[in-house]
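Example (one chain per record):
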Amino acid sequence: MASFSKLLEQRTVPKDKEKDKDDQVYLDSYADLGIHEEMLKDTMRVAAYKAAIDHYASEWQDAMVVDVGAGTGLLSVLCARSARRVVAIEASRLAHFLRQVVDTNVPGTVAVHECLAEELELDDGEKADVIISEWMGYCLLFENMLPSVLSVRDRYLKEGGQMLPSKCRLLMAPLQDSWREEKINFWRSVSGIDMSSLMPLARATFCSAPQHRIVDPKALLGDAFEVLCMDMHTVQSADLERFEADLRVTLPPGSRLDGIVTWFECEFGDAGWQLSTSPSKPATHWKQTVFYFRQAVEGGGGILLTGKTVVERHDEFSRGYRVTFDLKIPGRTSRMEAFELR
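Predicted structure:
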């Protein structure tokens, strides 16, 4: 999974060309072996998928499995050890090496299709028993790969077929920690030089874009709330355009709300294994995504903060999202905190 904030620049081009450029940047980033090394070293990620594949192995002897976004081929090879046939889709330049990996490990079982998922063409009447994909990005949906997976599902998954993962949830929780203020206060004095004039810029920098970092579970101010829950067999791309959830946070006396932290959870049918990027679980390469507010909300003697969080597709960057928090604070002016996930 890649971060594109340093790879993209502002563009004023037609949206179809803009999307093509976004897609090319995305695919080029996944031709970088370093990204795949990071993902393969994520033991929780690998263990979740391996446990699911092992669980269903005895049911897959006659199955045809489609691996969407096969990358270096780990999931394709694991599936091919049990399945009759595997179709591996990989649109990046890595597809050439993917063929070598599968031919070395499971010769004759995996067919590599070097194409976008939307361009996949199977033989007439051929249907998939299983579609497997590791499509999740920061904050679950960043990179917007899921619609590509759904395009394969809608065209080729047979009735009663299996999606892995089968269910995904996006969760949020209130956060109190000192990270933001430490980053801003660094500029107060650097090597004895007063650089406090840069502090407003630092605040704007760290509070306009989400931060991807490991959060101490002790920093959570309250229980998590669900923002999105998807059944992968029925969710539609249109469901991802915009969704919202009520925000209701009780701030204990003397507390301070610095922002909102997000993570996701994925289930794999009845395999009995859950992949979670929660702060209370072992760390993954996804970490957590934190939205730090421009100004902390002081809890005073204890208050109930309400409002709404809205997540919607970015109107300029086709693989990004905009996230806003409409905060209603008792006795104070309402506030809107807006972020770009791009």
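Caption: Helices lie at 15-29, 33-40, 43-56, 74-80, 95-105, 146-156, 179-185, 199-206.
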